[in-house]
Amino acid sequence: MPVPLRPAVSALPAxxxxxxxxxxxxxxxxxxxxxxxxxAPLPEVLDAVAEASRAMNRYPDIANTRVxxxxxxxxxxxxxxxxxxxxxxxxxxxxxxxxxxxxxEVVHAWRSFEAxxxxxxxxGARWVGVPLGPGAEHDLDAMLAAVGPRTRAVLLCSPNNxxxxxxxxxxxxxFVDAVPDDVLVVVDEAYVEFVTDxxxxxxxxxxxxxxxxxxxxxxxxxYGLAGFRVGYCVAEPRLAQAVRSVxxxxxxxxxAQAAVLASLEQEDALLARVAELVERRDALVAGLRERGLDVxxxxxxxxxxxxxxxxxxxxxxxxxxxxxxxxxxxGQPGDGVRITVGETEANARVLEVAARLGRAGTELSxxxxxx
Length: 371
Ligand SMILES: *Cc1c(COP(=O)(O)O)cnc(C)c1O
Prior knowledge:
By secondary structure, the protein is an alpha/beta fold. Helix content is 37%, strand content 15%. The structure holds pyridoxal-5'-phosphate.
C-alpha cells in the first residue's frame, strides 16, 4: 500500500512557473513570463557573493543578523520585527503555518498571485477567492464581506500580480480597521519599489501600531535576486518570532545573505534601474493602449492583457515572435496574459505583436487570428 499523503497535499495544484525562452536560430528570444529583473547582477554584488562562497563549508548565520540589522536601519523598524525566509513566498508559507489549520479560511482576491491558494491549502485551510472588481482591482468591500468566523488571514496583493493595479492607502486603512484584530492581514508588497501611484498603499504605515498587519517584501524583483530566494516580513515582534520558529533553519544561504547586504549598499544603482524599468513600463502601457488594447493600470514590472477566451491564442502569437509571456487560462471570465517589462528590444517587439492583435486581444472578443 502506498504511503498515504495528507489530503491537503494530495489535492494541491502545481505551481505553474513562467516558461523559459527557447533557443531559436532565427531571432533572439526573451523570457517575459516570471517578472524577473532583466538587468545582469552588479559587479559589487557578484564580488560579495564570490567572497561569501569561500565559506560554503559553514552554515550561514541562522538569525540573518547582519541582514536584519541593515534592513531594519533602512526601513526604520527594530530588527525584532523582521523575519527572513527563502523568498517572500517562503515567509508567507511560514506565516500561514503559524496561524492556520484545517477548517480555517484565508480570504484573498482572485485572480491574484498564484502561490496564494497553494500556501493556504498546505496548512489544511481553505482559500476563499474574491473576484476582482472593475479595473482588475481588489474588491475590498466584497473581501470584507467574505471575512467570517473561520477567517484566520486575509492576503492583499499590491500591486496585484498578475493584473497590475495597486491598492489605495485610504481604502486599506478602512479595510484593516473593519477586520477583527485577531485576523492576520498580509500586505504583499513584492513590487513596492516600482509603484508610482501616489495614492498607493504604504504597507509599513498600515502595519504601524496594528499588531495583526504584516508586510511582505522580496529581493527577487527590484533587487534582481530572484535566483537567490530572499524575502522578509515586517511584523509585530511576536509574529516575527513565530515565523522564525516555523522556518526551515538556515534557509537563507550565505551567498544570498551577502548578496542582500551588497545590494543594500548598492541601492542607489539598483533603484536607478528600477526607475528605468518604470519608464519602460509606462511606455509599454501607453503603447498597448494606443494599439487598442484595454490594459489596466500597471504599478509593478509587468502589464496585463485581459485577453479573455483569446488568452491561449494571444500567448501563442507572442511565442511565435520569440516572446514567452504568461497566459492565465481558467475558462472563466478574467483570463489574460501577463507580460513582464523586459529588455528594450523585447518591449519594442511586444508592441509590434500587439499592433497585430489590435482589439482582438481584449476581453469579450473572438479569439484573435494567430499571425
Ligand atoms: C514575485 C512575488 C513574490 C515574491 O516571490 P519570492 O518568493 O520572494 O521570489 C511575492 N508576491 C508576489 C505577488 C509576487 O509576484
